[in-house]
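**Sequence with structure:**
===
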Amino acid sequence: MKQLTTLFAAILLAGSAIAQRTIEATASITPKAPATGENRLEVVFTESGKPLAGLKLTGSVGMTNMDMGTAHPAVKEATPGHYVLRPMLLMGGPWRVTLVSADPKFTIKFDMTAGGKDAWQPVKQTISVAGAVKETPKTEPTKPDPTKTEPPKTEPTKQEPPKADPSKTEPPKQGDPGYGAHDMAGMGQVASSLPQLKEKSAYAWTDEMDFDIRTGFGKFEPMVRMMILMMVGGSGMEGMKMAPMEMKFDQANFVESGDQPMKDMPGMNMSDKPLKVEVKLDKASVGDNNVTVMISTPDGKPVEKAKITTSVAMTSMDMGTTHPAMKELGKGMYSLRANFSMGGPWRLTLTITAPVMPPSTYTFDFDAK
């Protein structure tokens, strides 16, 4: 009977060891509307209403709509259960912050949009992990035994090095490399103690891969070159490959007019320009911009139900290419939202396929400020 009781108690203990743990995570960000640049994200983890301290967390930050690289900001425990990190959001758009815990093992993600005006609502998530709550065993300090006396401590005798007799200095022997050689040997020992460069990883390229993104600073090479030139006293424009800009600007209503490429080549006539396309933008500014597109035939009739593909990219450096959605408003009017993530020259490209017409491409240049 005693053995059965012991076995039943062991089964109960084993069942409690694999119980589920429930962890609550509450996040908040400063500023309340995530901004382009550095932000402060604070996540509070609790378990059974008590702060969950001592978590080992690693963080990662990256965009969800394009590849801008992945950053790994440090996660620090400011107070018990309160963990703080500073995600750097390089440009406006959707971003994701991911936290990974080593013990207990779990992953939690927070999505936010940088550069907007709407406040980010605090996010509260519930995490379920396997395993019972760990309790630290209480240990009482060992009481000293009065019967045992320690032997008295004796200090070691200090020995002074023998003094050298200056009268017995020997001249350098034949073949002695002399002071210079010893000095170089010492420098070699110092150099060997410094951190040594080692190969971190190896890459293999194929004909279909872009070699430039694996060299130097990759896609950020033009930006880094510009920043270096600015720091040494230049304007930064000397090291940039500026693309030619063709802008037709109407001061009255901020209208950009786009034409097909090769419009000035011999043999081109009005039949080579099947559509008239106009773009209206109140003011090109950094961030989101509402753009209105008007499409009509050369004789002024509005074009409806056109299929349009879009692309927005910077012309002075590679900041990635976005493809905003186009919305039809009716009577030849369309609209899209273009995001200019930083100040400078930007280009909007529209490829339009109208009913019973071949595809045609139009470009519009803007200077975001």
Summary: Residues 114 and 342 are 13 Å apart (CA to CA). The helical segments are 2-17, 178-193, 221-231. The chain has a mean pLDDT of 76. The longest helix spans residues 2-17.
